[in-house]
Design brief:
Blueprint (H helix, E strand, L loop, with lengths): L9 H5 L7 E4 L2 E4 L5 H21 L2 E5 L4 E2 L5 E2 L3 E5 L10 E2 L4 E5 L5 H14 L4 E6 L4 E8 L2 E2 L3 E4 L3 E3 L7 E3 H4 L4
Parallel strand pairs: 4-7, 8-9
Antiparallel strand pairs: 1-2, 3-6, 4-5, 6-8, 9-10, 10-11, 10-12, 13-14
């Protein structure tokens, strides 16, 4: 006889230790080990670049994980980087409660399919306008834009390219600057 797992709830998630690296997607608690130093180096560098750009122009707020984002679907995620436009800052409460304008995930070697497929589809269903996947192995950035509720083919930026963001039109980043040297 097939035994079904009980769906987990926000209440189950909230019982986890405060520093738990976990997400609640589709009623399943997904635990994650701490990311490796290279991952954190990329996140820190990208947050620094984005914060400076956003702050200088008064565009909104850039936040970094661990940070709970409660999506309208009832799922709870901890993206690596979150950008919320000034007009949308009301979703910042005790946690992020609503749809951020840009979510960025740096692929982890132990679970790239979660970011590439599960979270991509989840973010599209919840109406996240822009989603970036940063791949440390290939040294690329994929930029997905929401169109009619789905993400189409991403713009792919490779090491050495300059990338732009439709959400932040004056932003131009050298993909090389995202990845640590050496």
């Amino acid at each position: 006889m097939l035994k079904l797992k009980a769906r987990k709830t926000i209440e189950d998630y909230m019982k986890l230790p405060e520093n738990a690296l976990a997400e609640l997607i589709g009623g399943e608690l997904l635990m994650t080990p701490a990311p490796p130093p290279e991952h954190q180096d990329i996140v820190t560098g990208l947050v620094t670049l984005l914060r400076q750009f956003v702050s200088e122009r008064g565009l909104g707020k850039v936040l970094v994980s661990p940070l709970d984002v409660f999506l309208p679907s009832g799922d709870l995620v901890q993206p690596d980087i979150v950008f919320i436009r000034k007009a949308n800052l009301g979703i910042i409460q005790d946690r992020i409660r609503g749809v951020p304008d840009l979510l960025i995930e740096v692929l982890s070697p132990d679970r790239p399919e979660r970011d590439r497929f599960v979270k991509r589809d989840l973010y599209a269903r919840n109406g996240v306008p822009e989603y970036w996947i940063v791949d440390p192995k290939d040294r690329t950035v994929e930029v997905f834009l929401l169109d009619a509720g789905i993400y189409g083919c991403p713009a792919l930026y490779e090491f050495g390219d300059s990338m732009t963001s439709p959400l932040l039109p004056a932003l131009t980043l050298s993909v090389s600057s995202i990845f640590p040297v050496g």
